[in-house]
Amino acid sequence: MNRQKFQLNGLSVIYEDNHLIAINKPSGALVHGDETGDTTLSDLVKEYIKIRYGKPGEVFLGVIHRLDRPVSGVVIFARTSKALERMNKMLREHTMDKTYLAIVAVRPEEFSGTLVHHLIKDEQKNITRAYASKKNRN
After folding, report:
1. pTM value?
2. What does each of the 138 residues of the chain score in pLDDT, given as a tens digit?
3. Which secondary structure element, helix H or strand E, spans residue 44, and what is its range?
């Protein structure tokens, strides 16, 4: 296990071993490719592994989960196909938990709960927005 923090071109690696790598994803970063063609976090992590370990050719990197583009947080990638298979199994079988935390301007009455929103995607702009009800889209 490597507990030292590394950075390459703004990429902040917070954990890595032979099987997994955890990245501090900044808000605005895209985890994996979409129709925008923007550089992805996956691309940056592959480049990091290639340079750090002197790997020739293609680097395997499995996307275990993702965070939406506007969200910051930890994203874990699999460095081997076996690790990807095992992590996917853990997610499928609910033996791994994902926790989402929010920074807010005003302290909520309850410290935990469930948000229920309606997601509307603007296909032309490739942006999805959340609304409290189907009627309140403005």
Report:
1. 0.76
2. 444 455 556 788 999 999 999 999 998 888 988 878 888 999 999 999 999 999 999 999 999 998 988 889 999 999 999 999 999 999 999 998 888 887 888 888 888 888 787 888 888 777 777 787 776 555
3. helix 41-53
Q: Which residues pair with 14 in a beta bridge?
A: none
Residue 68 annotated in active site:
yes
User: Residue 85: what are its φ and ψ, rounded to 5°?
Assistant: -60, -45
Cβ–Cβ < 8 Å for 13, 76? no
Distance of CA 138 to the CA centre of its chain: 28
For residue 28, which of 41, 19, 16 has the smallest C-alpha distance? 41
**In the block, residue with structure tokens 């076996």:** 82
Q: Which of 34, 68, 97, 122 is catalytic?
A: 68
Structure tokens at 32: 């994996």
- Residue count (the chain): 138
Give the amino acid at 119: L
| Domain ranges within the chain, ordered by starting residue | 6-107
Specify the CATH number of the domain 6-107.
3.30.2350.10
Give, as one character, the DSSP assignment of residue 41.
H
